[in-house]
Amino acid sequence: MASTLHDKLQQLGDLELAILVALISEEHCILSSSSNSTENLKEELHLVCSELFGLQVATIDCSAQTNVDEFSEAILVDVADEDDHDSFDREIGSRTQSAVPGSDRFGGVNNTLDNRRIADVIIAKNIDLASPNVQVQTLELLRTKRIFTRTAMHLAPKSLLFVAVVSKPEARLTHHLNDMFAMSHFHDADLGFSRTEDRFEGQHSTNGFHQNEVKSLRVQARNVHITAEMAGYLHNVVIFMRLSRYVKSGVTATATRNLRTLAKTLASLHGLEFLTPSLVALAARKIYPHRLVLATSETERSLQWGSDPEAVRQMMDGLTVELVIEEVIASVESPL
Length: 336
Description:
Helices cover 43% and strands 13% of the residues.
């Protein structure tokens, strides 16, 4: 890894690293902070994406009253603005098709061309509070990389990044949408929001990432070698997670694929060409927290074979997703 790139990586904060990992792995992410810091988190992420990575960003504040039309309009940006940004795959994101209902099929004078496009990065604050219709629209966007408005079809950039800023750390999205997000991260508000604070003080951060540097890290991640022993370790982590008495659901096939992808991405950031157990464990701590659904004292498996309900209730008291993940990681034997 080039020394200049290594120096840049060493200077990144947790939010900047989270966005970089998402860009390298080409996966979407969920970010959270304390409930009274979500607005600061959204602003910080906007600055990270625009200043550090040169991407065009669209933000939206969601609520139960947000409708599909408002959501669709909020994530569109003018193509004319893209000259000020260094973005990925512009030519893909800028192609749109339009038609005005009621106009003739050959394109009469009443036709107007809506040439807006979907932003490179969409930051959706409080999307967990949005209606099921808006979350379904989000799911459709992430799956098809396009949306339909009343006047046009808009295509997303190939490297579209959707960042969900949820209202609280334990918030969940609808089942299928939740599984579209590869990783989640909690930012401690006590650590501050460096770029927002620098902007307030009139300072300007430098040393941005060029798209070629991100693409280079992406290639390195794809070329990371997984030995037979590490493939077995990855498999065991998934199996132990699925069979844990504390886990009811959430260990999906998508999560397993994301675990492998994220572990390889972390290896590339460390300048490694192979996986290590510690990188797999770190990936598991980011892949599963927003996915796992824990069993309760009424649904714990051993009750089927005669366990004492009171003993089970005491055992389950105070159990958290993070504790379960750590227990599973500790129970899987690492390869030598």
